[in-house]
Amino acid sequence: MSAQRISSRIAAITESATLAVDAKAKALKAAGRPVIGFGAGEPDFPTPDYIVNAAIAAATVASNHRYTPTAGLQELRDAIVAKTKRDSNYEITADQVLVTNGGKQAVYQAFATIVEEGDEVLLPAPYWTTYPECIKLAGGVPVEVFADETQNYLVSVEQLEAARTPKTKVLLFCSPSNPTGAVYPPNQVRAIGEWALKHGIWIISDEIYEHLLYDGAVAPSLPVVVPGIANHIIILNGVAKTYAMTGWRVGWMIGPKDVIKAATNLQSHLSSNVSNISQRAAIAALTGDLSATHKMREAFDRRRKLIVGLLNEIPGFNCPTPTGAFYVYPSVEGVLGKIIRGKTPQTSTELATLILEEVEVAAVPGEAFGPSGYLRFSYALGDEDIVEGISRIKKLIAEISS
Asked: Other C-beta atoms within 10 Å of 94: how many?
């Protein structure tokens, strides 16, 4: 009897679509092709010098060459406590914090720690591509709750209630959102928190884009708005987006002490401690000011307005104006089914492939985040590339056969 080479659990995992698109764009660029990539979800700015210098200094200290506590350096956990109070007005203690190898590990461990086999997890769509894979790895069942552009991609309590069953254990909440850039207003945050509290539903809340807000938008932390939920919420965050530190791999979980202790036990077998050099860099980031972040946000805001305007000039594209993160998520339904250079894309995946092949512009198709009919563009790249890339798409779509 032949054994299956790859376990069914791992074989069922799909590759990260956003990383795949970015890798393909970079490979074509390395081959000399003039590709413009809108796929990567990372700031195009260097990590601020004071953070880099802290890492350089840390590398010369022998204690940083050794194992340190799984949950994270005490100084970093203390810095996260202070930062959480400063930025969210949420008071926690260090034993409610677990430092992880980036936000993705925090996502994985959060679901692995509280989800049982067969538990249903409400997953507002469009969603970040990693969420459903982590839910399934934990034995859970993702239940998509879709809100389209007419709702500004924000699910309602009524939609969540309609999707709730006796098996519902967790709601994934992400504001500002990847992939849409949508931000839940405070009254809707409160309504969702109160609904979850009423029905005893856990919330896993991803706050990684908390500082990238525009047009006066605010993104209050759920347990501040609904204090009663504090014992049934896990907050995920990290330094990647706020400080342009995607490659440093430092994230964290905040939650009830018993949950954090259990997740720490898991991490002790999974990866031990996060790199001490990266942790020291994160301490410098969190204890410094946010001036570098504010400068990045100003640039993102300018690019946001630029790309929304350009996309909405393309017939068949409908791009809402996001108020957070650094993504836009236009509907492209008006283009699907049309003949473009002899091809007729029926899905956003087919359209994204056509755009990459014909005009060498890389975007991520909506199927990576939920239903077809959308494209995600990151505007974490230079203004000139934004203008050139979207102009190429506009010229291509202008060739639609009547």
From this structure: 16
Could you report the per-residue pLDDT of 290-305, keeping only the tens digit for each? Answer: 999 999 999 999 999 9
A 10 A CB-CB count for 36 gives 24
The answer to whether residue 118 scores a pLDDT higher than 90 is: yes
User: Residue 219 CB: number of other CB atoms within 10 A?
Assistant: 22
For residue 326, CA distances in Å to 25, 39, 139, 400 come to 19, 11, 31, 29
Give the domains, in start order, of the chain with CATH numbers: 8-46+292-397 (3.90.1150.10), 49-287 (3.40.640.10)
- Between 35-39, 102-106, 163-167, 314-318, the lowest mean confidence (pLDDT) is in 35-39
Spatial contact of 13 and 214, defined as CB atoms under 8 Å apart = no
pLDDT given for residue 1 in this prediction: 44
> Per this entry, what is the length of the chain?
402
Question: Which residues have a Cβ under 8 Å from the Cβ of 189 and sit 6 or more positions away?
Answer: 175, 219, 220, 222, 225, 226
The answer, yes or no, to whether the previous bond of 142 is cis (omega within 30 of 0) is no
Report which of 379, 244, 365, 383 is spatially closest to residue 325, judged by C-alpha positions: 379
DSSP 18-46: HHHHHHHHHHHHHTT---EE----S-SSP
Distance (Å, whole) CA 184 – CA 172: 13
Beta strands in 14-107 (DSSP E): 36-37, 97-100
pLDDT tens, 362-376? 999 999 999 999 999
- Nearest Cα residue to 309 out of 362, 377, 363, 374: 377
Bridge partners, 125 (sequence order): 146
Name the nearest CA neighbour of 371 among 123, 204, 186. 123
Position of tokens 């799984």?
70
224 neighbors 207 (Cβ within 8 angstroms)? no
DSSP 273: S
3-class secondary-structure state, position 124: strand
**What pLDDT is stored for residue 3 in this prediction?**
65
Residue 20 pLDDT > 80, yes or no? no
